[in-house]
């Protein structure tokens, strides 16, 4: 049977949906069959991130009420990666929670891993999900308010007898001062780090456009490698190895950005001889060979006119 993993947080807006989508993509890329479940009934948004909002006809509520709707409710995202949307109209307080649990457990026969994007905070929804999952991934920002709420969520997990969890620090700053990793772990009273994901404006752009999975480059998958290993093997990397993985990604990202911003010595331009060919001109201190040639041609024309 497949394993059910809850992606949870104490505070909203820390990136649970982003982590759920990217982790699912990384697991499916490694050959595992994965189902992404939106567990935020009434406020679903995983469909927007995945870019399939217009493809939703049936949802988890329909499938839990009548299992004949299950295949119609599940949307294929990519090879080995499927999606089960939550209801947009019904809340956790309005649905049959036992039926939902039965639905997800039945799907364990089909998938290797089921990732549930849980609602933020504490309530009926998170309680139902914690009664269903085998272990949790706790997502937090490197901010004191997020860390305190993350610590409270860890307590809630332990109250539901879930002792197997890993922390994901999302949107970690790549420049300037940030909170020390071990200070954050002390606030959370946690031992295991699943991943450190750097702050990246591209994530916001791809999320808004519904193309987040296009961001799952080999470099980004390397950042998620410790989290993938935790899901597959149950073992977490050492803290300093997770930090090294984060630092390597940041170094490559900065180098690529600097290379893109570095002015080239050659630029394309039109030929001054009236043909349609594109030629390269050398840039030197703001002066290009194209500009010098044009000025030389104009000077020659003026001299001929004076004669």
From TrEMBL:
Taxonomy of the source species: Bacteria, Bacillati, Bacillota, Negativicutes, Veillonellales
Keywords recorded for this protein, A-Z: ATP-binding, Nucleotide-binding
Listed name of the protein: P-loop NTPase
SUPFAM superfamilies the UniProt entry points to: P-loop containing nucleoside triphosphate hydrolases
Cited Pfam families: ParA
Entry superkingdom: Bacteria
């Amino acid at each position: 049977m497949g394993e059910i993993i809850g992606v949870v947080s104490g505070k909203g807006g820390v990136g649970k949906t982003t982590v759920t989508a990217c982790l699912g993509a990384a697991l499916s890329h490694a050959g595992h069959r994965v189902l992404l479940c939106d567990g935020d009934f009434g406020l679903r948004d995983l469909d927007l991130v995945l870019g399939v909002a217009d493809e939703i006809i049936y949802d988890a509520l329909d499938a839990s009420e009548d299992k004949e709707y299950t295949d119609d409710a599940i949307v294929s995202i990519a090879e080995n990666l499927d999606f089960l949307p939550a209801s947009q109209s019904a809340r956790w307080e309005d649905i049959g929670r036992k039926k939902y649990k039965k639905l997800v457990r039945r799907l364990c026969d089909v998938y290797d891993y089921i990732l549930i994007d849980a609602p933020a905070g504490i309530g009926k929804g998170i309680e139902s999900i914690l009664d269903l999952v085998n272990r949790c991934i706790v997502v937090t920002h490197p901010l004191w308010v997020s860390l305190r709420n993350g610590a409270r969520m860890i307590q809630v997990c332990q109250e539901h007898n879930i002792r197997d969890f890993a922390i994901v620090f999302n949107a970690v700053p790549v420049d300037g001062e940030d909170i020390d990793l071990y200070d954050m772990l002390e606030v959370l009273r946690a031992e295991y780090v699943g991943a450190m994901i750097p702050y990246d404006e591209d994530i916001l752009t791809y999320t808004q456009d519904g193309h987040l999975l296009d961001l799952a480059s080999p470099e980004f998958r390397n950042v998620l490698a410790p989290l993938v290993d935790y899901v597959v093997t149950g073992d977490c990397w050492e803290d300093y190895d997770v930090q090294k993985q984060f630092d390597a990604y940041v170094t490559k990202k900065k180098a690529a950005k600097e290379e893109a911003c570095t002015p080239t010595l050659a630029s394309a331009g039109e030929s001054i001889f009236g043909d349609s060919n594109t030629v390269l001109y050398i840039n030197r201190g703001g002066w290009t060979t194209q500009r010098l040639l044009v000025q030389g041609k104009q000077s020659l024309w003026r001299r001929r006119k004076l004669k």
